[in-house]
Amino acid sequence: MKTTFALAGIALALCSMAPAQDSTQRVVVPAQNSTRPRKVTVHSNNGSITVKASNGKEVIVETSGGRDGRPATTPDGLRRIDGPRGGVNIEAQDNQIVVNPGISHGDLTISVPPDTSLNLHTLHGAITVEGVHGEIEVETLNGRANLTNVSGNVLANSNNGQITVSMDRVDTSKPLSFATLNGTIDVTMPADWKANVKLNTWHGAVYSDFDFKLGGGGVITQGNNTGDGRYKVKVDNTIVGSINGGGPEATFKTLNGNIYIRKKK
Fold first, then answer.
1. Alpha carbon separation from 255 to 15, 19, 258 (Å, rounded)
2. Domain residue ranges of the chain, discontinuous segments joined by +
3. Confidence band, pLDDT 50/70/90 cuts, at residue 188
4. What span, in angstroms and rounded, lies between the C-alpha atoms of 60 and 62?
5. How many CA atoms within 13 Å lie on the side-chain side of 48?
6. Distance separating alpha carbons of residues 127 and 137, to the nearest angstrom
7. What are the distances in angstroms from CA 171 to CA 80, 193, 213?
8. What is the C-alpha separation between 92 and 90, in angstroms, rounded?
9. Quick one: average pLDDT of 232-258?
10. In this model, does residue 79 exceed pLDDT 80?
């Protein structure tokens, strides 16, 4: 059975001409008795997303902010008039929870049980995850991704922003991926982590305190199978290698930035 929740905005009275204010709202999504694993999906246009592990069984969604940063008053004393805020809709079915924020919802803070899988997307804002153990997929167009003390597998992508990840345990049956166009990738892994690694940065360097065994890569010559005997040369600057004897694939890719792979102390 699908259950729908709504975080309706608190409207500011237009006739009062009061300065713009923000509101904070909170909704509790009760645990459902289901054999399906719990998963929280969020697709946001504007605002940061923060997910933290909690001891409870419920999923708690809180909103804050929600304004666009424009001043409440003008230099000559005019006060801004705001209409109602867009609400946040939440649908829950069989432990699958989908959060659909409104355009001006502001920042989201979500508390989840530790064993929760996440699918988090925002266009403009940072994504922060703390202490969650599951399948974690995060993507932000303009913002940082910061994942701390997570376990399972991670797919992290940012177009403009740094990716910082610290993992306690790794699901050895699934690949890992960390990619950004403009930003540093800084990942800390357990000391016994086993992986086949692909590393690629065009304008940066790669650093690690793991023992890294280099594999193939470099210049690849390809024939074009034409009668004139011409050929083309393709340069692949991907560093390929293995850590602790190899394991599932882990990809690290950035155009502008360094890559750091650290051993958890």
1. 51, 44, 9
2. 23-65+86-209+244-263
3. very high
4. 7
5. 14
6. 11
7. 51, 10, 22
8. 7
9. 89
10. yes
- Give the Å distances, CA to CA, from 86 to 30, 47, 89, 104: 23, 13, 10, 6
**The token pair that represents 12 in the structure block:** 């500011």
Q: Which helix H or strand E contains 241, and what residues bound it?
A: strand 239-243
221 close to 214: Cβ distance less than 8 angstroms: no
CA pair distance 115, 44, nearest whole angstrom: 23
3-state secondary structure of 129: strand
What pLDDT shows up at residue 65?
A: 61
CATH of domain 23-65+86-209+244-263: 2.160.20
What confidence tier does 80 reach under pLDDT thresholds 50, 70, 90?
A: confident
Please identify which residue in the block is written with the tokens 């003008």: 74
Closest CA to 50 of 65, 61, 66: 61
User: Hey, is 2 helix, strand or coil?
Assistant: coil
**Greatest alpha-carbon span in the chain:** 81
pTM score:
0.82
Tell which residue, 166, 115, 119, has the closest CA to residue 138.
Answer: 119
Dihedrals phi, psi of 167, to nearest 5 degrees: -110, 135
Vertex 20 angle, CA 14 and 22, to 5°: 115
Task: List own/partner pairs for 76-80 with CB under 8 A and 24 or more apart.
Answer: 79/17, 79/18, 79/19, 79/20, 80/19, 80/20
CA 39 to chain CA centroid, Å, is: 14
Give residue 42's pLDDT band: very low, low, confident or very high (50, 70, 90): very high
**Confidence (pLDDT) at 81:** 74
